Amino acid sequence: MSTSALDDLQEFHWMMDMLQSVDVGIVVLDRRYGVKVWNSFMESHSGMLPSEVRDKSLFNLFPSINQEWFAQKAKPVFELKTRAFMTWEQRPYLFKFPNYRPITGSESFMYQNITLSPLTSANGKVEFISMMIYDVTDIAVGKKQLEALQVQISEDQERTRQTPDRGMG
């Protein structure tokens, strides 16, 4: 094997290792929403091995995902080669994974942001899309706590305005 081929093989190995070790869920889907790639984040949080999910329908594996809604989100990714985003504020999660974070243990599930990206083949067509699943539970919990605190402060201020000042007179 030539040095160049060995370097290419080594680089491919590093990329595959990175794909498996990154703390982000990575799923590759075909046009019929069959799973092609399922990284270790997804394996760890779903309890399903890549061999168990490969070539199976995302909607058969996760019946709680609304197929019509998801297809609407994915269509421009396939057709227009644009990215699509789903935030926890629109929908708290796509995959109802348990929350394993000790700091944010107050939530029973993992809040997620999702990015769908087109994967363009050598012929310029998009036959596959990647889905990146980010655990944003810490952010969501912090924002929810901040909003609750703001409501509490507002209510306290309103009560203070409504209570007559007894020190006068």
Automatic annotation (TrEMBL):
Record-linked CDD domains: PAS
Q: Where is the PAS domain?
A: 13-79
Matching InterPro entries: PAS, PAS-like_dom_sf, PAS_4
**Top-rank lineage group of the source organism:** Bacteria
Spell out the NCBIfam families in the cross-references: sensory_box (TIGR00229)
**What is the protein named?**
PAS domain-containing protein
Species the sequence originates in = Alteromonas halophila
